[in-house]
Write a structure and sequence with these properties.
The protein is of the alpha/beta class and about 350 residues long. The protein contains 11 helices and 13 strands. It has a domain of about 210 residues: Spore Coat Polysaccharide Biosynthesis Protein SpsA, Chain A (Alpha-Beta Complex). Helix content is about 40%, strand content about 20%. The two termini are about 25 Å apart.
Length: about 350
């Protein structure tokens, strides 16, 4: 049963809207959509937001009863997902990639956790690679040290570390490829930050949710398979991903992290220009110059938003970073989830 919180409570069996951003992904949709239609949880709406595809995606989407939302140009991931969320009707929003398939209990497992605790913002599933031989996304923490295994640099000096968990456990963030959120809280947060069009949008929104005391929880029994990187193989997609990652790092560090980490991120991103030129990667170098110039003009905007966000919550960026680090240090992977789990942020 949902907890008694009039602000965040959901129906006993809330409607779920699966939101998928698509661009020329007809072959992916032929696999993804049937697995969503085969879910044990019956009340699932599918919304396909199309970034100006030229293939047969519309016909396939409509054949599986999906709501088709065409856009006139490729606006990127975060803006497309926001548009899909606005068009969706569900109390729960499930953001997934088109190059995925899902265990039949995937949606049911995620909804169950959201119903247990009204302070949960997002729940996250476990991703295997396409043939199921490797686990590609697990419970995610933030650390100041690079670890072995699934570990990526978030910004200079901070790393995203992933590890196994047998039970649901609070985590730093959920992957936008397998993330279910409580619509009411998603709207309070203003949705994904569209200045982060293709990367870091999921870290960013979960970080902002934690500032409000709204948890993200990893649910290992919610299983899916991801054809990782299949949507980024064309030259156009590779360039967009490069630009998206660069924008994401700069925006996330500037508007949410302490000044030291923001300065290191800007320095590293600027130093990358010399490497691009030394390797004669002129297209990447030009893209980097444009992003650095564009986002330099946004620094005051980011800092103003940062000060307002932390001030209204009675905290600051350094304190919140410490709390997020403690979330990783104090993890107990063998302890079953309890809705009474202490919040990291108040």
């Amino acid at each position: 049963m949902p907890v008694n919180d009039e602000n965040h409570v959901m129906s006993v069996l809330p409607a779920v809207s699966a939101v998928i951003a698509n661009r020329n992904g007809v072959e992916h949709l032929r696999v993804c959509l049937p697995s969503l239609r085969a879910q044990s949880y019956a009340n699932v709406e599918i919304v396909v937001v199309d970034n100006a595809s030229s293939d047969d995606s519309q016909r396939v989407a409509e054949a599986y009863g999906a709501k088709w939302l065409p856009l006139q140009k490729n606006v990127g991931l975060a803006p497309a997902l926001n548009k899909g969320a606005s068009a969706a009707t569900g109390e729960c929003l499930l953001f997934v990639n088109n190059d995925m398939r899902f265990d039949e209990r995937f949606v049911e497992s995620l909804v169950q956790l959201l119903l247990e605790d009204a302070s949960i913002f997002a729940v996250d599933g476990m991703q295997y690679n396409w043939d199921g031989t490797e686990k590609g996304h697990l419970a995610t923490w933030i650390s100041t040290r690079r670890a072995e295994g699934l570990c990526l640099e978030l910004v200079p000096g901070l790393f995203l570390q992933q590890s196994e968990s047998l039970y649901p456990v609070p985590v730093l963030m959920a992957s936008a490829a397998s993330m279910m959120v409580r619509r009411s809280l998603f709207e309070k947060l203003g949705g994904f930050d569209e200045r982060l069009p293709l990367s870091y949008e999921d870290v960013d929104i979960c970080w902002r949710a934690w500032i409000h005391g709204w948890k993200t929880v990893y649910v290992p029994e919610a299983i899916c398979w991801h054809r990782v990187g299949s949507s980024c193989r064309s030259p156009e997609a590779s360039r967009l991903l490069f630009v998206g990652i660069l924008k994401g790092r700069l925006a996330f560090a500037t508007k949410l992290l302490p000044a030291r980490h923001a300065a290191l991120t800007w320095a590293a991103s600027s130093a990358g220009l010399a490497k691009d030129m030394a390797r004669m990667r002129w297209g990447f170098a030009w893209s980097r110059i444009k992003v650095l110039a564009e986002f330099a003009l946004k620094i005051s905007e980011f800092l103003q938003a940062k000060n307002e966000l932390y001030r209204t919550r009675g905290t600051d960026a350094a304190t919140h970073l410490d709390e997020m680090l403690q979330l990783g240090y104090a993890r107990i992977v063998e302890k079953p989830w309890s809705s009474s789990t202490e919040k990291v942020a108040s």
